[in-house]
Amino acid sequence: MTDTSLKFLEKYLNNAAPTGYEAEGQKLWMDYLEPYVDEFITDNYGTAVGVINPEAEFKVVIEGHADEISWYVNYITDEGLIYVIRNGGSDHQIATSRRVNIHTKNGIVEGVFGWPAIHTRDKSSEQSPKPENICIDVGCSTKAEVEELGVHVGCVITYPDEFFVLNNNKFVCRALDNRMGGFMIAEVARLLKENNVKLDFGLYITNSVQEEVGLRGAEMITQRIKPDVAIVTDVCHDTTTPMIDKKKEGLTKIGDGPVISYAPAIQNNLRELIINTAEDKKIPFQRLAASRITGTDTDAFAYSNGGVASALISLPLRYMHTTVEMVHKDDVENVIQLIYNSLLNIKNKHNFSYFN
Ligand SMILES: [Zn+2]
C-alpha cells in the first residue's frame, strides 16, 4: 500500500454506498482502478468490473463487494419520529445514541437514534434495543416537517462514521465490510501493472453490489462474465474478542494473516493452489471451516454456470456490522499479496479437475 492507495481507501470508505445505492462509490473505485485495466463492464444494478485482457477466452475473477448495510425509513409518526427497517444485516443493538445520515433528493438530512434516559427506565424489566423500539429524531415535531426536509418512506440511512487509524496499524471505520475487498482487489491490479506482469488469461476485477441482502450482485454478474475461476475476498470474524464462542465460531484473529476457507463451495484444487502459494511466499494464513455455505459471494460464483472453481480468502475483522469495524494493516497487505501471487500461479486453461 502506498500513500496514494491509502488516500483512495480513505475517500472510498468515507463515501456511503448503501445496498442498492452503490454507484457513487463505484465511480470512485473505477477512477482509482482505471490506469490498471483495459476496460470496464458495468451492469444495470451497479456492479463494476475492471478487465485486463478482455479478448482472452479463459476468465479469472477476483471479487469483493461494494455495498454497505444501512436502514430504510419505514414509518413516520404524526410527532415526526422515524421508524426503520433493515437494508442488510444492520444491528439494532448498536443503533441507539448514534448520529445518522438520511439520504434524500435534497442531500443528507441529519438525525439521531434516541433512547429513553436511564432514569426513566424500569430497572426490573429493562428493554433492549429492537427494530420495533428504536427510532430516529430529525429535530421535527410533525410528520409534515419531516417530509418538508425531503425525508420519505424508502430513503436509506447510513452512519457518518469515518476512517481512522488506531495505534498505527489498525484501520477502523464503518463498512470495512467489504470496502476493504474492493480496495484489496484494486491493489492487486495496481501491482500487476507496476510489476509489468503479463497474464495469459482474462482478469475480471469485480466489485459486486447487493451482497448484504443475499449475494445478489454476484449472482447477476457471474452470468454475464461466465468465469472459469473466482477468487473472492470478504471479511470474517476475529473470534478473540469477548463473548464469542470459539467452539462455535472457530479461532481466527486479526494480525495472524488472511483466512482461507473450507466449505463445499470451495474448489479443493484451487484452495490448495492458494495454500501452496502462501507457504511458498511465506505469507501467514489461518483456516476457517463453514458448514453448507460460506455466506459470501463465493457461493454465488461457485454455484453458477455449471460450477465455477471458486475460493475464499477473508480478511479477519473485529466488531462486524458495527460503526467501529477494525482490521489489521498487515492482514490487508497479506491478503493483497496472497491474491496477487495466487494469480501468478494460475495458468491459461488451468485444469482444476479432480479426475486427471
Ligand atoms: Zn457484511
TrEMBL record:
Gene3D superfamilies assigned to the protein according to its UniProt record, in alphabetical order: Peptidase M42, domain 2 (2.40.30.40), Zn peptidases (3.40.630.10)
Catalytic residues, chain numbering: 211 (proton acceptor)
GO biological process annotation, one example: proteolysis
Residues annotated as binding Zn(2+) 1: 65, 177, 234
Keyword annotations of the record: Aminopeptidase, Hydrolase, Metal-binding, Protease
Residue positions binding Zn(2+) 2: 177, 212, 321
Pfam families per UniProt: Peptidase_M42 (PF05343)
Molecular function per GO: aminopeptidase activity; metal ion binding
SUPFAM superfamilies found in the cross-reference section: Aminopeptidase/glucanase lid domain (SSF101821), Zn-dependent exopeptidases (SSF53187)
Cofactor(s) essential for the protein: a divalent metal cation
Cofactor stoichiometry and binding remark: Binds 2 divalent metal cations per subunit.
Similarity-based family: Belongs to the peptidase M42 family.
Record-given protein name: Endoglucanase
